[in-house]
Amino acid sequence: MKHIISFSGGKDSTAMLLRMIELDMPIDEIVFADTRLEFPELYEYIKRVEKYIGMKVTILKSKYTWDERFYGKFTRGFNKGRIRGFPKVRFPDWCNRDLKMWQLNKFCKGHIAYLGIASDEKHRVQLNENIKYPLIDWGWTEKKCLYYLKEKGLENPLYEKFKRLGCWLCPKQSKDSLRILYQDYPKQWAKLKKYEEDSPVAFKPGFKLKEIEDKWKNQTELSSHKT
What we know:
This protein is α/β, with parallel strands linked by helices. It has one domain (3-161): 3-Layer(aba) Sandwich (Rossmann fold), CATH 3.40.50.620. The chain has helices at 11-22, 40-53, 66-70, 94-108, 134-138, 142-151, 175-184, 186-198, 209-226; strands spanning 3-6, 29-34, 58-61, 112-114, 131-132. It has a 5-stranded parallel β-sheet with strand order 3-2-1-4-5, covered by helices on one side.
């Protein structure tokens, strides 16, 4: 039975990994579930962590691509023949299941998996004897994890832009995150708008991406006129 670290590149799983190494806890494999929808900086950060710890991170590719699931059609039920479009804003959703959890669960089956869930997020814990939560055992909060990484000079640079990390097209992200996507990642922003045009399901309830883009453009123009 192997001891497998589920590593996302976020502050919690990274802090868990480094602390486990310091404590000489058993680690047979470190795995990263690649949804193929990560920010470019995250892939660079994974390489940086690998160099720091002197260990290889195994990249697990998703069984399906986003486009295959997004444009795939329902084969039964009320929505038969309709493409899926965006996943639900709340769990459970096909995106997390098919692009991340499928390959993780398959790889870790029959082994001990370590998940980086901080002590202030205990509601996310799954009751499974093969899943361990070291951060909860240590009483480490999200704030503690971030401070720990900063002390080592190993914080993920994406946290300079975002409060939480995730796929660049995640419907669960805040408007503040979307604005950063619009400003700093124009290629991804253009793709996201195209997906919204094609989706039979709203990206987020209450607004359209084009609407908030126009609002941000107007705010920028007003600001430039004032200066």
